[in-house]
Amino acid sequence: MQQKLYHYVYLIVQEQTKHFYIGVRTSICDPKLDIFYNGSMKSWKREKTYKLYKKHKKVIKLFDSREEAELYEQRLIAKYLTHPLNKNYAIPSLTNKYK
Q: How many domains does the chain have?
């Protein structure tokens, strides 16, 4: 029996600076219970103080497929790409990993 996969788009906000990051995730864990996943943004990992900031993760939307989630993520990032607090520096391309 194959495990259910959850495909979702999330928003992470650094509460002190209000910087935000939009990402997509596929997991076997229900997003409501996936509280320890703090995103994959490399831009924050380079900052020495990023661990000092309390982050808040919000699931924006669930999808039936990874492709749908990635397309939504792309549109959302494109909408906020030039926002000064946005930590997404590019619009990601689609993957074929979860088809």
A: 1
